[in-house]
């Protein structure tokens, strides 16, 4: 084998290695849970735009997402590995800022509701969790789960199916 062929082979091997390492890093970066079983479930959004609309779990997963570990204030709440966009990210995706709202209420399919005010989202990340870290949400938590790392876990909500933004009067 001549020098030119050896150089070309070396170049090809290096290129392959670079592509392979890039794919490995993409696979390892972030949290990629298999949410295919519930990615089409819808969450109704009210008050963020002129008309109510729905987003899917998949739509939320496609936004800029964050990962965080949250420790609940009770044994029942436990420790959670939240993964999803923040409430601010959702608002910004529709050209809005949380500064424009007085409160945001999260409605769950089990009729549990939590209302948050600016004090909460100014002090903590409010995560619309689409997965438990690298694991999908359990069925009893779907479609999304509200997690607020560092805040009282009594404000966490599972089975969120509607998010209602309220502007100041």
Describe this structure as you would to a colleague.
The chain has 169 residues and is α+β, with helices and mostly antiparallel strands. Helix content is 26%, strand content 31%. Strands 1, 2, 5, 6, 7, 10 and 11 form a seven-stranded mixed beta sheet that branches. Strands 3-4-8-9 form a four-stranded antiparallel beta sheet, with no helix packed on it. A hairpin with a 4-residue loop joins strand 5 (103-108) and strand 6 (113-117). The longest helix is centred in the first third of the chain and has 26 residues, at 3-28.
The DSSP helix count reads 4
Proportion in helices:
25-40%
Shape: globular
Most strands sheet:
7 strands, mixed
Binned strand content = 25-35%
Question: What are the main properties of this structure?
Answer:
alpha+beta, 4 helices, seven-stranded mixed beta sheet, 169 residues, single chain, 11 strands
Short description:
By secondary structure, the chain is of the alpha+beta class.
List the helices and strands and how they pair.
Elements: H1 3-28, E1 42-46, E2 53-56, H2 57-61, E3 66-71, E4 79-84, H3 87-93, E5 103-108, E6 113-117, H4 118-123, E7 127-129, E8 131-132, E9 135-136, E10 144-147, E11 157-166
Parallel strand pairs: 1-11
Antiparallel strand pairs: 1-2, 3-4, 4-8, 5-6, 5-11, 7-10, 8-9, 10-11
